Amino acid sequence: MTPILSATDLRKTFGSTPALDGAGMSVAAGEVVAVMGPSGSGKSTLLHCLAGIVAPDSGSVVYAGRELSAMTDKERSALRRGAFGFVFQFGQLVPELSCLENVALPMRLGGTKRRVAEARAREWLDRLEVGEVGAKRPGEVSGGQGQRVAVARALVTAPKVVFADEPTGALDSLNGEQVMRLLVETARETGAAIVLVTHEARVAAYSDREVIVRDGRTRSPELVP
Ligand code: ADP
Ligand code: ADP
């Protein structure tokens, strides 16, 4: 299958610390890929390079046939607001806005009228089984509810690729399972691919395929002794 997003031979050094040392991976449309490995192995840096947030020192990232480094900053930020969606360990919801307004925000930034954006945001909160928190601020909801709001916000613009960096890292196992089930279910329905960074096997179990990162290099699990 042709990958929608692929990275080849990525290298990135922070000061004298090599974070990536020849890493590469690809994701097909609609595929859920788990990026696994110990803390400090380079998983987040790999995700940031794939998403165009961090520029690698060398190597290439290609999204839908286009090299990210050949795009302008404007084009890359358009990607991050449109074709790409993000879910982080801590929801990173805007604390001053209600949960409903948080989910509506990406659509509002894209020029959608408030009424339309909020109606769609309401549907997405229901879909993530947190319809009841719409009027509350992120500080007034539980960690699990907040992550479901964050998933709704990531998927509401129908992204092609969702980047999820330890999306369940701050949750207990029951809430973690729920967030993963809803994230993967809704991505399957909308056709979004997921790049899922995790160090937990039970979270990676939701993926179609695993990529292992060790010391800034990637390999398939069958090659790891
Ligand atoms: P992981 O996600 O697997 O924990 P990271 O990609 O976060 O790994 O980090 C890989 C290595 O790069 C680590 O040694 C980390 O300390 C270093 N690193 C990552 N980001 C930065 C940064 N912005 N500045 C300095 N060092 C960094
Ligand atoms: P550095 O840490 O070396 O300053 P940055 O990650 O801040 O590098 O990015 C430097 C520039 O590269 C920024 O203008 C940024 O928009 C751009 N950039 C970000 N991601 C990519 C990418 N994947 N490929 C090429 N350039 C990128």
Automatic annotation (TrEMBL):
Any one GO CC term of the record: plasma membrane
Assigned keywords, A-Z: ATP-binding, Nucleotide-binding, Transport
Gene3D superfamilies, alphabetized: P-loop containing nucleotide triphosphate hydrolases
Domain ABC transporter intervals: 5-223
GO molecular-function terms, A-Z: ATP binding; ATP hydrolysis activity; transmembrane transporter activity
InterPro entries xrefs: AAA+_ATPase, ABC_transporter-like_ATP-bd, ABC_transpr_LolD-like, MacB-like_ATP-bd, P-loop_NTPase
Pfam name, any one: ABC_tran
Protein name from the UniProt record: ABC transporter ATP-binding protein
